[in-house]
Fold these 4 entries.
Entry 1:
Amino acid sequence: MLTKRIIPCLDVTLDKEGGCVVKGIEFVRLREAGDPVELAKRYNEQGADELVFLDITASHERRRTMIDVIERTADEVFIPLTVGGGISSTEAIKNILRAGADKVSVNTAAVKNPDFVKESSDIFGSQCIVTAIDCRRNFDIKDNRDKTIIELEDERSAWYEVVIYGGRTPTGLDAVQWAEKVEKLGSGEILLTSMDRDGTKDGYDLPITRLLSETLDIPIIASGGAGNIEHMYEAFTEGKADAALAASIFHFGEYTIGEAKEYLMGRGVAVRI
């Protein structure tokens, strides 16, 4: 049985020297959570399976700063590190992997140029390419009959629209159809974030997580909404995700990675201890 992965997510802003981890609600109202390298070291010691760094400033001028953060982190931690945010060229991927990352996460650039996923996968291998999909529920079903309509928890129905630029720009793309496409293009994993749940602590968006997990052959990382470790259990059992990403509950000391894993193991979920 494959073990389920627990992945802390560090949203890094480069406005401060050395970078700073922040956490918000639906990608806004940011609250500082600490130094990225120190948090990464803590999670490595606690037994996290992987780490995700998302550069949420991602401006070209500050890219060197993020490379420095990656290099310092890679010197301190010994678990897989995924880096995303503003990555739009194979040269950027090469520099990030060279700095010590194991995978890169692509999002907006992939939506604007899907061939970027294939090109990157061909050069670096699918195991290095994670496609991040940020999506939001869209209840306009009548005018979108070509979309994948999903029944929700409250018996309403919606389709999930891909959004880019940190959730600010709707694309009209159906998240399920887009996920199927990037899998064919060579993406090795999907990082699925529900914008409706991000930072709310109301639990993961189980309907879309479950459908993608059942539809695709590549792993699905559930993201957005973790408020407690019961939500992680639901992501694995009801959502059928391969990994659960969380931020606030770890950053602000509500739970440790070890406590999450002990809870999951006690309820029959296979995790690496």
Entry 2:
Amino acid sequence: MALPGALSALSLGSILPEKLKKAKIEVLNESWSKKEEVEVLFNPAQYALTDSAKYREVGNQQLDSPIISYVGGAASTLSMELFFDTSPVLTTTILTSTKATDVSKKVKKFTDLVYIKKELHAPAKVKFVWGSLSFLGVVTKVQSTYTKFTEAGMPIQARVQVEFMSVPDKNQKRKAPFESPDRTKCRVVREDWTIWDIARSEYGDPAKWKLIAQANGISNPLAIAPGTALKVPAL
């Protein structure tokens, strides 16, 4: 029987649920290509992405509060809980159950990602892929909680907390590269800026503050008064 106009094949396709996409963890090799996959039995119910930045408190005797100096960006993190179940499953065709298996064997594939790989001399880099999320990083923590067992004590259910930390893609160029000065400049110290901030702004590296200090005969970088004009030498 033909579908009514309101439920044509085109309109029916728009109301049917989207095809289920399984989350996966790709283990990468030295060239950052996919080497293998670690099976995720069930998609996570939720995940958390965290982005942050690093700041340093610089004390100043002339101020009641410290000056907050930006140090640099911090690695993004991804965390989630994954569920594993290897309980017997009823097969409806012949009304029998499959045999239960040890769930810790599947969990071990995740815990192995924390440890050093001999060929890499470091833990493997991984990519967590699910829907629009593609997170490149390393596994920093795996916490396993076993929640169900057979009468013989074999674990068959587990909840696993997994945490990832991002790593920069070696093939991705910096979006906003710093421009180092090719000639000597002059910068005036503001109340909310330190010599470290000037070094970061001009050189892209706050650790190069010593170059500015040497060029201006500064022995104590914390004693620079606001309004002081500093020479910023060329690299």
Entry 3:
Amino acid sequence: MSNFKRDGRAYSLLTKQLQERCGVMLPRTAINELSIKNVPRLVIGAPHGRSGKTTFTLGLLRAFAQQGIAVQPFKKGPDYIDASWHTAAAGCICRNLDSFFMRKQEICSSVRNQSLEKNITIIEGAMGLYDGLDLQGSSSTAEIAKVTRSPVLLVVDATRMTRSIAAMVMGYQHFDPDVQIVGVVLNKVAQARHEKMAREAIEEFCKIPVVGAIPKDVNLCIPDRHLGLVTNREMPETDKLLDYLADVISKHVDLPQVLALARSAPELPQFGETLILNLANYKPENKALTPKIGIIQDAAFSFYYPENLEALKSMGADVIPINALLDSQLPEDLDGLYIGGGFPEVFAAELEGNKLLRGEIRRAGEEGLPIYAECGGLMYLGRSILTPSRNFEMVGLLPFDTQMETKPQGHGYTIMKANSDQLWFDEETEIKGHEFHNSRLINLALDIKFGLTVKRGHGIDGLHDGISYKNVFGAYNHIHALGCPEWAERMVKLATIYNQTRRS
């Protein structure tokens, strides 16, 4: 593997661990072949949310990275914020795995492709291990574990429990025989006696190892906001916090045993042709033309799936980063603009202050520039954002104002049907996505055109989503390119048409 070639210490560490666990010394080539053929991996699950999965996962990722062990992070579900923290911790782009809008072949191919040059893959779950959309547990962490045949490491909040933890873990072991729980991490352990009783009960009755016991620590947390954790871009001491988490995990968790459990994973399932392969093999219609698509990426707009940006590039686009907080103008000869989600309400004063860029975006949209905006991007394109403190002027390209609320106005998976009043999807196309917003649109123009009909979710008004104006499309709905590949193809096509029109 690439990291072993650069770091002999990491290679020696892992081979020693393998020898201790397996009783045999493997040559370097054997480790390389094993890593490629059989991805060492673990799903980090928990009995319930707030058990400490994320802080444990971040510390584990950073601890491995510090030892020169290449680790590939994944996050279960449509989560942008946790994924950004994973990326910072591991020094490697985190990917999302979601069985609601990704097929089994996309999930397994993503794990395989992203793990090729890594020594271990860590998949952090969401909510409780078996919590899903229905009685069958669809779209749960357990489903991802079963689809990828990944062993599960269970993080348990040990507060006010000792022997009872074994009964709880045993229930999780036997609830679904296709889910393999291979170890436990005890979190929020009070004292040595507490740890000893819980550890002995689990190992005696559940017959699986306790690989770590993390003590109670008020510093083992990341600040929250209404949509989840604060983004790592907003934390000036991100690396200091991640290093602290890594120190705690290195001290209280048996990392060699975690590696050994990951290497117990069977071979990944293989399926037929995937959308990942299709995107990689896409050939643009006009090979001589490379449309330029701007991506607004900054502290205010940071919610992007890497697959979405990669899909645009695979289809022939040149992706240009833009900072809505600092850049005073759009790049020259821009053929399209993509504005993702984020927290424009938090940075509303800075966005309002950049009047020059707001004016350029408004003029470009009026002149026909294809613009695709999701959630925070939709809010930015409106007339204003109304917060409890004051109102802030935004781009003013779309005829509405955004009112911030204290509770979520839309939260969860979505299913949308494309209407005829838009250019971005074929009519009647069913689009699976997700939404999570504490805002609602008010003062909408009477003649506004909606491009999507809500079949599941809330959208803008419970019935519609996707405001369509000229070549502009803004929706609360977030999509993933592997679940909606036609989106990237259509964006590149519209950008190409705009380029040709502008040149003629």
Entry 4:
Amino acid sequence: MFYFDPLYFTILIPAILLSLLAQLMVSSAFARWGKVRNGAGLTGVEVAERIIRRAGLHGVGLEGVPGQHTDHYDPSSHTVRMSQDVATRPSVAAMAVVAHELGHAQQHAENSVFIQLRGFLVPAMQFSPMVSYFLIVIGLLLNIVGLIELGILFYGVVVVFMLLTLPVEIDASRRGLRLLRETGLMVTSEDASGSRSVLTAAALTYVAAAVTALLNLLYYISLANRRR
């Protein structure tokens, strides 16, 4: 029942389609704007250095990281890590990605409420997904509704984390675009439209993840109700 429930696939198919659409938009945006030179002619590293200097984000480090689309801000070390394509290319996509990650750095510097809430849940996210799946599966096998419900509570942590991630990421993009304008890096109309396109596509991946998590939660709740 758990693995072949038609209801599960009814929920799963829209989630998969949304995730595929998000990935397609990200790939398309990066493929297009990764080839367009930004108006300032600066690589990702140079964009980061200018923003850090002019926006007063002192203490933020810069490092390289292998892979593609692996760029991220590490709050534990106050470091922006950039993939090779972003770090070394003077593209609109690279500029947008760097600005977004520095938006996260600014959030941490200002102790953003959503950042604090999400940070509070980070330790729980290290075990909540596995514990929730384990309890739900064991509850189904043994037909113990209480275990399923306990697993649902643990999975609720995952859903809350995903939902909190949305405003954090959207705010980081908003801050990133503002940083580009305030530091004089938004030189051409392509800089503005391309940066928005890249960051909007990236945001959709977080929307897809949050929707998928929420749909899974509703499915698990329906399982518990049907086992009563």
